[in-house]
Each structure stands twice: as C-alpha cells, then as structure tokens.
Amino acid sequence: MVRVAVIGATGYTALELLKLLARHESATVTVVTSRQYEGVPLHTVHPALESLYDLKFSAADVANISNNADVVFCCLPHAASAEFICQFDDSVKIVDLSADYRLNDVETYESLYKTRHPQPELVGQTAYGLPEWFASEISQSRLVANPGCFPTTAILALAPLIKNQIIDTTSIVVDSKTGLSGAGRTEKLAFHFPECNESMWAYGVGSHRHGPEMEQIIQRATGVQPQITFVPHIIPVTRGILSTIYVHPTAGNSVDSINAAWREIYDSQPFVRFPEQSPQLKNVAHTNFCDLWCQPAGEHIVLVSAIDNLIKGASGAAVQNFNLMIGCDQRHALC
Amino acid sequence: MVRVAVIGATGYTALELLKLLARHESATVTVVTSRQYEGVPLHTVHPALESLYDLKFSAADVANISNNADVVFCCLPHAASAEFICQFDDSVKIVDLSADYRLNDVETYESLYKTRHPQPELVGQTAYGLPEWFASEISQSRLVANPGCFPTTAILALAPLIKNQIIDTTSIVVDSKTGLSGAGRTEKLAFHFPECNESMWAYGVGSHRHGPEMEQIIQRATGVQPQITFVPHIIPVTRGILSTIYVHPTAGNSVDSINAAWREIYDSQPFVRFPEQSPQLKNVAHTNFCDLWCQPAGEHIVLVSAIDNLIKGASGAAVQNFNLMIGCDQRHALC
Amino acid sequence: MVRVAVIGATGYTALELLKLLARHESATVTVVTSRQYEGVPLHTVHPALESLYDLKFSAADVANISNNADVVFCCLPHAASAEFICQFDDSVKIVDLSADYRLNDVETYESLYKTRHPQPELVGQTAYGLPEWFASEISQSRLVANPGCFPTTAILALAPLIKNQIIDTTSIVVDSKTGLSGAGRTEKLAFHFPECNESMWAYGVGSHRHGPEMEQIIQRATGVQPQITFVPHIIPVTRGILSTIYVHPTAGNSVDSINAAWREIYDSQPFVRFPEQSPQLKNVAHTNFCDLWCQPAGEHIVLVSAIDNLIKGASGAAVQNFNLMIGCDQRHALC
Amino acid sequence: MVRVAVIGATGYTALELLKLLARHESATVTVVTSRQYEGVPLHTVHPALESLYDLKFSAADVANISNNADVVFCCLPHAASAEFICQFDDSVKIVDLSADYRLNDVETYESLYKTRHPQPELVGQTAYGLPEWFASEISQSRLVANPGCFPTTAILALAPLIKNQIIDTTSIVVDSKTGLSGAGRTEKLAFHFPECNESMWAYGVGSHRHGPEMEQIIQRATGVQPQITFVPHIIPVTRGILSTIYVHPTAGNSVDSINAAWREIYDSQPFVRFPEQSPQLKNVAHTNFCDLWCQPAGEHIVLVSAIDNLIKGASGAAVQNFNLMIGCDQRHALC
Fold first, then answer.
1. Which of chain B's residues have a Cβ under 8 Å away from the Cβ of D235?
2. Domain A2-147+313-326 class?
3. Contact D236 B187 (CB under 8 A)
4. Mind listing the pLDDT tens digit for each residue in C72-87?
5. pTM higher than the cut 0.95
6. Which fold has domain C149-309?
7. Does the annotation mark C328 as catalytic?
C-alpha cells in the first residue's frame, strides 16, 4: 500500500480527492492536514466522508508527513503550496494542485501571482500533470504540477491542432463556462446562493491567470505558442467546465482534419472521448473524462471541450498522475 | 382603453405578456386564444394569472378578434403566425412575436424556416420592433415584427460600433448563453429537468436562425452587414440571455470609443444601461433592461450584453412596441 | 407624494422594497441608509436598481430622516431595529420589517432573541402587519410590525380554521421549505452556492423563532393559542416558501369546512387565492399572493400555503401595510 | 464473472446501475435491452457511458437473456415488469426494480396499481430488498423486490422505533422531498425545466402508492403496522430524497432511546450513518448511504432521513441485493 497525505484537506478538491482515494486499492490515506481544524475529525468538516475514513486533521508537519506518507497531495493555495513543498527532500513524491509549478518561467509566475517564488529553479522544470501529453515525464517525476481546470479543457482541444498546423495560432477565442465549485470552499458574497443562482456573468476578462497557462503549456507541448483570448464565466451549477473555442482552420483543413488529429493522439488515451453530439456537462460530471467535439460555424470552426472541474480539472487528474508516479494503471480509482 | 387580444396564449411569452398587461393602465385584454384549450379558464393553464384575469380561452377567430380588439399580440409559432396575420385588414394593429416578418428578404426566410411565406411582399417591409433603432418606423406601423431574443443582445451591442466603424465587421464571435424558457413551454426530453439541470451545452452550432437575423438587421440599422459566428448555449436557469461578443477594434479605437458610441446612441433610451461591472443575469431578470459593458482581452475587445429573454427579448419588447404604436410613453407597464 | 426612507437598504428585503416602490405612484424614496456604504451610489450595491433611482446611501440620521420622510421602512436586524425606531417621535410613520414588535409579550421576545428590548411597553401593543387579519388596526397605526415570512404562510392557513373550531389545536405540524433569499444577503459557508445547490436540509428544529410567532399571532387573531411543531428546511431556490401543514379535523369537519372557512374570510381580500391544484412556488414568485389549498391524507388534512418570502413574506407585505397607513388602495404597486 | 442483463436500460435507474456495474469486479454486463432502441449503441442513448461499455440495445428476449445472463436487473415499469419476469425459470436470478413484488398482498397491489398481477402467488412471498432488515432472505432468493425510494427513507428511520415500541404507531407524518430524477426519464410538462426550476410543490397527497408500501413493510419487519400520513414534494434538484418524519415518543422515551435503537440495529450495517447535524442531500448524493438524525421539536420528535434516490433508493440498493445474491461483500462497487 502506498501511504498518502493530503495537505490542506478542508476544500472541495481535497474532498473529491479523498472520495476517489477511498476507492483506490493501492493507496491508504494516513495524514490529512488543516491548520484551522487540527484535532477535529475529518467527517466533522466533510460529513460526506463519514464512515469512509477514521482520521483527524493534524497540523502540516513536514517531519511527520515524511515519516508517514510516500506521496503527498498538496491542496494549499498558490505560494503557500511552494513554501510548503520546498521543505521536502527526495524521499517523498508530491502532486501539487496549486499553480506554483505549472508555468514555463518564473517571471510570468511572479507577475501573474504577485509573489516571489521560493523555488524559482523548479519553475519550468516541473512535469505538467496532463498525462495525455506528458505521461513519461510524469511517471519519472518526484514533483508534478497538476494542471489548471480551464487550461485542461483548452490544451486538450487545441494542442493536437496546433501541433499539426491545422489552425491559425492567433485570434483564438476560448469562452469558458464553469460551475461554482471552481471558486473554492470559501464564503464570498459573489458566490452566496441568491447572488449566483438564476444568474451568470463573465469575470477576469483580459486578466485571468489561466490564459497564460494555456498559452505556455501548448507551447511546451507543440513548440508553438498561440495567442488566446480567454474569458471565463460563472454559471449556476456546482460542477463542470464547458469551453467553446473559436478557431480559424488553415488552408485545406476542416473538421475532418481536426477529428483525425484528435483521434490520432487520443485514441490510446483512456480519458478523452468523442461524443456524437455537442458535449454536455452532465455526461462528464463525476468522471475523469474530457469530451471533445467540433463543428463549422460561419468562418470559424467551433471546438467544444467539457470536463468535471473537480475531477479531470483537479482531483481526478491528481489521481491519474499519482497512478503514473507509483507505476500502476492510470485508470485506478477513476473508472 | 385599448382593447388587446393575445393569440396563442398558452406559452411563456404570452404568460409574461399577460403579467405585464395586467399592470398597463391603458390596455385591457379582451381575448385570449388557444386551439387546444378553447373554453377553459385562462388560470387553469396559467395558475400564476389567477385573480388577475377573468377570461376563458377562445378559438382564434379573425372576425371576433377584429370586433373586440384594437391591437393583437400574436404569439403563434413561425409560419402559423403569418398565416393568421395575413387575414387581418388595416383596422387592427399587430405585434408579431414570431420570426415571420423580421428578415430583410423572403429568400433567407424560406431557406432558414423551410416554408413558403404567405405574405412575401411584407418581408423586409415590416418595422423591426427594436425601439432603440426603429422607433419612428414602429410608431407609424400597423404591423411590427418583434425581435428575436439573441439578436436583441447582439444588435444593441454591435450596431453602434459598426455604424461608427469602431470594429472590424468580419470575424465577430457572438457566444450566447440562454435560460430554458427560451425553448418554450413544450415538453421535450432535452429540456426535462434532470437532463438540463447541472448541465450545459452548445446547440445550433453553425445553423441557428438568429445568426442571419443579427446580420441582416445590423445591415438595416447601419448599412453594413457584418459576418458573425453565433453559437448559443443552454444553461440551467429559467430566464435570461448573456451574450459575450468578441470583436477586433479598428485602428485607433478602444473601449473608450465603444463606450462613447454606446452612450451617444443609448443615453436617451430608457432601457439600455451601462453597469460598472460585467453584467449579471440577475440584474436584468424580470426587467426590460439591456445591460451593456466592455473590456479589452488579448487582441480582442469583449462586449457583454444581458437581457431577460422573456421581457426585453420578447414580451417586454412587445409592450414597448405597443406603447409606441398607441402613442403612449414607451415605459408604460415596464418599470 | 409620500416621502419614504428605507433604513438598512443593502439587503434583499430593501432591494425588493425599492423595486416595488419604484412602481408606486404615491411614494417617492428620499433616503436610503447604510452605515457601511455611506456616500456610495445605491446602484453600486444594487446594480439591478440602476436607472430606477438616483440616490446615494446616507447614514441613518434620525433628524435628517424625520425632516425628509413621512414614512420609514426599517430593514435593520432585530434589536438594532427597535434601538433605532424608539428614537422617532409621532411625526413619522414606521413599518418595521424586523421581529422586534411582533410578539405578544416581552418575556417571549427576550427569551427568543437573547436581548433586552428598548421599548418593552410597545411589545404586544403594536399592530401586526397582516392586513388579512388586522387591517383596521394597521390603518390607524403609527408603527406596524411586518410579519415573519414563515408565520405569514401558517397564520393565513390556520387562523380561519382555529377561529371556526374546524381543527384540533394541538399536534399541528408545519413543515416549511424556504428559498435561500430568506437567509439574507450575508455570505456564510452554509449558503455558499456549492454547499446548498443540489442539497436540502432541516434547520432550527425545535428552536426556530417563528414557531412562537405563529402561535402567538394566531392567539391574537382567534383567541386560541395552538400548539405547533414547526420545522423549516432550506431548499435550493432563491425565492419562495411552501408550508405543508398537517392538521386533524374536529368531528364533522372536512376539506369542505376548511375551504368554506377560508373563502368566507378571504374572498374579500385581494392577495389570497385558492388554486385548483397544489400550490407551486413559481405561481406566487414575484407576487404578493398567498396560495392556499387542502386535501385529506391518511388521518390528517393537509394544508399547503405558498408565498414569495421576499414579497408577501416581507417587502410586499410592507408596501401593503404602507398603503393602508397612507390611506390608499392596498393593491398599489403590488399587482 | 457473473453475467448480467439490464432490462429496460434507457431510464435513469438503468443508467445509474450501469455506472455502478462498470466498477464491479465480479459482474460483466452482457445484455442491455430496449424495445425502442434495438440495435442502437448504448452510448447513443446514454453518452455518459461512452467508452465504459461496447454494447448495443437488443430486444428483451427471454431465451437469449437466459442463455447470456446469470442475473437480471429488471428496470421495466410496474405490470410490464411482472409480465416479463414470470417468463423466467429458476436458472436466472432477478432483481426487480419495479413495485410488482413489494407489497404484502395482491389486493393492495391491484387496488393501488389498477392492474391484475400475473403472478399473484409471489406477492407477499418475495424477499423485500432492504438488506438492513431482510439480508438472509435476500441472499437465499431467486427473485428480490427492490424497495421504493420513499419507503427506504421511512422504513430505515421508523422500523427500529416501532420494533422497540419507542413511538406511537398512529399519527406518524412522513413529509418527503424528492429530486426530479425520481420522476423518470420521460418528458412531461410538469417536469419541463422552467416548470419546476425555482418552484416546488406537493403531489400525490393522500394517494401516493409508497404510503401503503411503507406501512406494509414496517409491518413485515416489526409485526406492527403503523398509520402513516405520507406527502411527497418535488424540489428542484436532480437527485436525493430527504424525509422529515414527525413522531410522538411513547412514555419515557426520547431522542436517546431513538439513537440507541438505531445504533443497535444499524451499527453493523455498512450503509446507515448517523451524522452529527441534520442530514443534507449533498452528503448522500452519489452514495449508497442513508443518513439518519433526530431532534425534539414541540410535542414531537423529528426524524430526518436522507438518501440518493437513484442509489440507495434504487440502483445502489439493487447492486447491494445483487452482492448478497451472488455471495460477495455487499459493499462491492458501492464504496
């Protein structure tokens, strides 16, 4: 059994991770941490986990975790995450669910996240945890940067097309719609039920940090950095991201080229599907699948990419990475 | 008192219209029709109207309606609507909530709606019921074509910018999100609660009939026909449309030019607002307002336009047109 | 024009009140107060009110309000409300939307609300603002206690039956379901969207303050104080309360007696309706109606009572009381 | 591997069953049937199952199923289910998810379901598939009647209390709230999204068929038949039932007696939990758990019982029964 610690275990990604790990035959959770709830039973904060675990929250003590865990899932906020991770030596493997090790360069990180990075030498050197593109890197890594939720939808849809020069790499529009669990488990007036139920809005227009992540990782995967206009929207569902992506095909290309490129790269992958109709959130909710589909419209081709933001967009991807890192089938606990 | 008939009064637009007309001091509803519910009390189909009206559904008899109504709101489906309307002489004014008289030419109509038009000579000659652009035409008309819901959001946002040559007229993306009431009050598996709750999807990609309507009416308003890629999405709310519109400014233009153009045209209009933040459906729900806002993002400028699809996108616009047609303040029953 | 002040104008009941007052032909809002937002435009906090008002929040200054308002709607929290109200002299009329003046005796108030009452002499002496039962008292009052939302559903259903001795007054069960706007506009983890969407729960079991309010006001209306077991539940809608009430008919009584008693008392009232089918929240949402219905089930008769908690359960009732207090038709701005 | 057939596989319970069976290590689905979709791939109807199964719908042919399946899950509507099941001989085990074999006597069945029963001799003789009460019967049965969703919540809460004479068996109120998936996957105006979103209503008041099922099975479990007034309500969520149950304790009994009785019977059961706070749908959604909790209120004790109607209320219970019938741990595929 691989012993597992979950750091910062009070949020939604940790909750989802613990639900998945409860089904994992090769993993046993030994440590869950929370500064605020030290000593409190896990199920007091997460009643959904009652009877699945008999654990109490402890403080996030590096020595204790090193002694009791082989793999650490770090669910701390950005900056706090790197501060914590940089204290571990090589004996422990780590999946970092924050944004701290995702980007290609430390300048972009520090400019976007308005903070100094405690381990700048690892930025750009850390495996990006999208197994569909970086599986061999992930399986050999001690530290894996779990992808952002919006970038997962965009990179999976766009990277094959950019790699195969099927679309223009400028003037790409990624219009994403996300459920509220993406905002985390922290009360905020904007996410108070009557404020967002029966409503919807765009946010982070022109400034959301996941835009540069999409561009940089596509560059890492394909060698070409696209120009993406990314606008996320809040919609009143709990789970799921649906991204509608507007691209211009290069000369001679069409939806057939797109479908062929997608299938060539993803047919061997267990978690990318090609539904016959436009993807719907409900078909990917509570799964690790990404559903991809395309259709011509006006002078564009429209790509639609859908995931569960908490699973393929966070904790499911983390378990998929964990499976590669411990050398077992990447589908473990995810089907 | 202006005597009013509502034809096809079992659907959501009719329900909403009847709620608004119940507050209208110059209108009295004398006839509500339904083939299926002839003889049945109005409140049996619409319990929300109980105690507001003491009416029964009758058949849609042209002679009877002509005798008992000065103005007819026609809420029939397309094709059925024109078949009915073409039987009236000039003694009755009509607001048509269907798509039958909206487009610029009959060829586009017949190709999109797959039917012959019974009054082809009126297509392109009928006032388009968007008072912000066609008020004087509307006030002099006997027949007004009430706008489509999605076109209302797009035309109000785009027409001032195209008229003032502030944006490129090609490669415009209109990504719209609509609540389910837009699908009408007819049971269909796709709109069964468990099928659309906690879900979302794109539909009509590359084929929705409101795309050409946007392009043609902007041409009518500004003289220039833009190329629009329009993709609507279903989101799990009952009411509201939020359209996110991606445009390229022409040289020297910016959000300032856009805000100036909007304000120049709409500052005298009672139902267009400019919120400080990104529009939210909840702020326009149950109102006749259209909220407009813009922000730069990547190489685009992003416009956001929000309405209540049943009010400004249908029945509120119909009352606004009615007010102009009977010569009263267009805000009657709408504030 | 009656000049109106709204005190504590940042919450949902104030927002709803201001929407209603914008349609009121005899009222003009002159003052809106907020400690936190003094000097800020009203529409910055409530974008839905943009273009309906041109007001800024001011501090809640008694002298200023007395000079500029004829009627005050007080939307402060309990205790704060009475502290504020007791500073006014008789020149100003007041509708208090808090619980401070609703109960029959100060002992119950202080025990339930855990605070001393600054005007104990008015507790039990203040008109309870349920016009269906206390209209003449309300129209002669300077201060009216606007009813609680749950009590409105229960009192309207039960008082006619208890007055006419149609049901046992012990062992009554009131099982209420409320939307989230009832929880107010204050962020709280329990009301964070992902915590309550797709969920539901009972709360305040055995301890909710509206239980005693129901019992005491029914006593005031009928002379008999019933024993009520009241359990409210949170359901994931924004607006509306549906109460399912289980009663035992006394010998010889049935649904017919209940319907007869209801109609005798309410047929002259504009805001109580008797739908043919079980009431549905959507039919009362955004209205001032209370829909009542009953049906036998097992050894009980089941009463169902539905309102919009923000309208008939709060701000609509407040306007209805205001109409009585200023001597105009109680339907003004409410139909 | 146990070969499994799912009959009537187009509905929500079949979809959920197939999701669970995809994770079951000892089961392989060999047949899925649908009259309407014969020959169509399973994922065309259920896109959520794409890549989990490579099956097409076939007709429900008894010989073919007998040859290819060891266990049959029958998801047909009542009456159709028994018609089908009575054609099988003893070589096949069957879990029937309809109501056909649940009740104690055929008279009640025929009176409630308005149809003659094709196998009256089995009514009252078939194991009721609630393992917490009838596990040994289930494990020895060839045919198991899977429980109704509402009865599951009521029986689990009430049976221990009635068995131990802790509560009065008359005047019990069961006020249940269910999500829309309980209404099945058939379009119907009442369940059209805009009809039920932001709404709620009571239905089947005094006539719902699950009331007698609760009473009869509690009698079978405890020897005493209680009198239950049962009122179900539709609430706008997809999944979950929360039942609020009002009981009178017998002399000397209290919440302590109730908690003790529950724990004595259920502490050895894997799927009954006792949360510290009032149960919430979200904590049981997508699980096979039933959460039980109680609190005094007025002269009653209030019991709250919550399940996922599609899992513990249908397909999860079916898999739990299947596990018992094939002799494996009842938690297989359910944790």
1. none
2. alpha beta
3. no
4. 999 999 999 999 999 9
5. yes
6. Dihydrodipicolinate Reductase; domain 2 (3.30.360)
7. no
